[in-house]
Amino acid sequence: MSTTEAVSGFRFRLATVAAAAVITLTACGTAGPTTGSTAAPPPTANLKPPTSIGPGEGKLSLIAWEGYVDRTWKSPSIASFEKDTGCKVTAKYAGSSDEMVTLMAGGGSGQYDMVSASGDADLRLIYSGDVRPMNTDLIPDFKDFQTYFQAPLYNTINGVHYGISLQWGPNVLMYNTTKFAVKPTSWGVLYDPQYKGLITVPDNPIQIADAALYLMTTKPDLGIKDPYELTQKQFDAAVALLKQQRPLVKKYWPSAGDEINLFASGDAMVGAAWPYQTSTLKASKKPVADTIPAEGATGWGDTWMLATNAPHPNCAYLWTKWVSTPQVQAEQAVTYGETPVNTKACAAMETLSAGSCAQYHANAPGSYFDTIKFWKTPIATCADGSKTCIPYSQWQTAWTSIIS
Amino acid sequence: MSVEAAGRPRKAGGAASPLQSMLWRRPWLRAFLLLLPPLGWFVVIYLASLVLLLVTAFWRINDFTTQIEQVWNLDNFRTILLDPTYRLIIGRTVLLAAAVTVTDALIAFPFAYFMARVASRRTQRMLFAAVLLPLWASYLARVYSWILILNHTGLLNWTMQSIGLPAPNIGYTNIAMWIVFSYIWLPFMIIPTYSAMERVPESLMEAAADLGAPRWRAVRDVVLPLALPGVVAGSIFTFSLTLGDYITPVLVGGAGSTFIGNVVYTSVGIANNLPFAAALATVPVAIMAVYLIIAKRLGAFEAI
Amino acid sequence: MALRFWAALVLLFLFIPIVVILLYAFNSSNIETWPLPGLSTKWLAITWSDPDVQAALVLSLQAGLAATALALVLGSLAAFAIHRASFFGRDVISLLFILPLALPGIVTAMALNSFFHFTGVTFSLWTIVIGHTTFCIVVVYNNVIARLRRTQGSLIEAAMDLGASGFQAFRDVTLPLIATSVVAGGMLAFALSFDEVIVTTFTAGAQNTLPIWIFGAIHRGQQLPEVNVVVSFVILVTIIPVIIAARLTGGSGIARTSSGR
């Protein structure tokens, strides 16, 4: 598929997401950071980003998903980045968007410089003033990014960029190939009593969307169109499904490493995962594989955002510059199992692992992009303007009652 | 009194300076000055933060930005008391704490009896040291060790399978939590029980024997009631430490192992809902306050 | 004898996990299964040269030494004050000093965390030290006051009768009597601080002490062979001061203060 088709696919998504976002921002009401009928700008909107990158400050403190600051990357490696820029990288790994938002409280509280936030965290970070605008001119590879990811609605507001897009990908169904000789074709395997005690799913309220996604196919009469915009009836159905699943679950994994452990020791045989877990387990010769079942998948689009009180902003820009180059984009994509935003990364991916460009849809993202229901923060206002959808805080309370 | 000291000319008013005399005559002043730094530390830092925490329990957070809004409300407490989820979590935690306490009491009692009344003096000292050592050997290390023992490919499964029994597979279950907690807090139960038993005079046992009681009867009717305060003292530790812990549930527990500690930890570290976490944290404190009152009645405080 | 057998079983129960983890530190493979495929010391070198572990170790040592020093001063002062004087509120103050260890760790941790947030203090080594000092004071206080209760006050008075000034009496009579309990309290405080994880997690910023590093690594399931080595190291570092403290106090002080972790 050509880039123009891909772009038009994005444009359609852009329209729907735009409508939702604009309504979000204008109608948050008392529950959100805006009041009244006009959207108030984010608190840090007037912080002018620098026009050039100064000298490195010697250190860089990142909040990242596991696999996003990977010292097994070979060329270029993080060690080479540290040597070239003098910025010593330390990473704090978070297992969920909620955790990232919490860690970034107080603009990173002077401790953290950047966060690799997913779409469901971005707006929350922006509107609480924890991240500040970034200057895309300082990132030479920005012009090679796919158009949609240059200004996606979750990190660009009124033309102001609050971060630089990084990579994106789906949540997958991971399974033990010795237990499942035939690849599972439906998410239903996670709700099947036959596999009691062998199932693991993320400990994350956003999982309710995955249940809703499954219900879109199995219970179409519920009328779910968007798994993040659920009416009370649809929400209750998703929660009921998850409560039925609870006795079958071995453990709810709070971080990628936890799930890797569960599969490595054989305590879990099937579960919802990120491609990172599969690729890490395969690297240790464990019999696992992953797939996207027929019902489709939820997913995430990640952005490197700059903390408002970042102590090392120059190193932060140097890092963002480095991570946007085709070679590093390719390395990260192939090691983690996700899709890079830099269109030039495809060739580099092929040299690392033949066929990976097609496998992760790096050169034909349009239709693939549409099959993924990207993480976004559920809010009370639905796409059609009505205010009957369930906001995220209720997702969190419901989640606690599901897993307890 | 030495001759030199007697012969040496004395300063008028004694060797003490006026300041020292004043301090000596007014012990409360001396105490006050000595107490100022540590008390100041405690009041300014510790007490103030506890009060702040309690106050925070009455606030709430903005749903979208998760920043604390200083709006007085009872929502947090209402949720904890009315939502069945939290009743379940609290009930589960209390039940586990009770199970751990009973288990440790049952394990500790015969051991403490052996230590106090049967073992020789030398063995007693060795046993005492042996019990204290694991206690001080890194808490995290011991919990981690159990993860390795209990998981799918760990020591327990392998041992059971080697002797022909099916693998119990208790990794990441509430049973695992019960075992690990009982293990970690066992020395806390052994030590006060042993101290209490040691204080039972041998003459009482001899008197019981003189009156015709067999050994077990003497233990039941003489040692047990006198050692009970020690057991209760130990139970204070096992109960309270289980009630507030989150490390073991997070590392060792599985689905359905959500305890008060887990919810507090995720409320603060992940949901950034400090007011709710603060409200929930008052529950173990309240439970322990009641427990301590009962324990005092049973004489446990003298046995610590 | 049944009792002897039971005692042996209990001892086995107490020590097997410690032995297991020490064995795993020498595991030749990087997969945590039992039985161990073989023994090797290779992980010792790898762990020692890991920069994250080194940074965590340095931070743990800094925090431990600073907290112990502060606790020694404050705890001893408190013990002296409470011991001799009887004044209004003395019992309340005694109770206050026990609180950090009596309250669940997470309550103390959250309280300090919200205090630092509220006052806008940046999380750093010093917030960690403040947290540690608060409960280390209790440990030192317990040890010193236990010893003070065992010393006869008449000794001080006798010294002063003999012509010693207050300071001389303190230096020549009191100090030698309590010296070992102060050292013991300091050792226990250091051991406690070195192993502490709950309060530290909530009072640290982006820094890691060794226990935080361990907890994160276990949680993420990464670098487990290194965790085995680090954990064994922490066991040794916390046991040795305790053994020394036991020697100095004849065992009594430790039992009474053993409600910390």
Overview of the structural elements:
- The complex is a heterotrimer of chains A (404), B (304) and C (261).
- Chain A has helices at 3-26, 78-85, 97-103, 119-127, 147-150, 207-218, 232-245, 256-265, 275-283, 313-323, 326-337, 345-352, 356-359, 365-371, 392-403; strands at residues 59-64, 88-93, 114-118, 131-132, 156-157, 160-161, 164-170, 172-176, 199-202, 249-253, 270-273, 288-291, 297-307, 339-340, 372-374.
- Chain A is α/β, with parallel strands linked by helices.
- In chain A, helix 6 packs across helix 7, helix 7 runs parallel beside helix 15 (392-403) and helix 11 (326-337) crosses helix 12.
- In chain A, 57% of the residues are buried.
- Chain B contains 15 helices and two strands.
- Chain B has helices at residues 3-7, 18-25, 27-56, 75-82, 84-118, 121-136, 139-150, 155-162, 174-198, 202-210, 215-244, 247-252, 260-269, 274-297, 300-303; strands at residues 60-61, 68-69.
- In chain B, strands 1-2 form a two-stranded antiparallel sheet.
- In chain B, a hairpin with a 6-residue loop joins strand 1 (60-61) and strand 2.
- In chain C, helix 1 (2-24) packs across helix 11 and helix 2 crosses helix 11 (224-249).
- Chains in contact: A-B, A-C, B-C.
- At the A-B interface, helix 3, strand 10 and helix 15 of A face helix 5 and helix 13 of B.
